[in-house]
Amino acid sequence: MPLGIPGGSVEENELPREAALREAMEEVNQKIRIDKIIHEDSQFDSRKNAVFTRLVYEAKIMEQRDILLDPEEHTDFIWLSSLEDLEGELIVPYLIDIFADRST
Fold it and tell me: How many domains in the chain?
């Protein structure tokens, strides 16, 4: 499995920012503060006849907490700050683009 980040769908009556806060808590037990959107893209899924939009936020952890992974979502975690930290790792392509853009 390639490395990824916590995420998921926006629920009914929920804003994308609220979904990101909820997903961070559900998937890795982290209370975060969202600073800004650092990546967005959309893709059309012809099988579902729907457009899926991905928003990636820059966020800060609000308090030091143990990482508790949702085993249905993640099997392991690493902290990283640059692409160099990922040498030899399989990573989802959009994260490579994000790190490349932020390192220039």
Answer: 1
Task: Provide long-range contacts, Cβ within 8 A and 24+ apart, for 74-77.
Answer: 74/6, 74/27, 74/28, 75/1, 77/28
66 belongs to a structural domain: yes
CA distance 92 to 4: 6
What confidence tens digit (pLDDT) does each residue in 54-99 have?
999 999 999 889 999 888 888 888 887 777 777 777 888 888 888 7
**Containing structural domain, residue 94:** 16-101
Better-predicted residue by pLDDT, 61 or 103: 61
Contact 57, 37 (CB under 8 A): yes
Q: Is residue 92 part of a domain?
A: yes
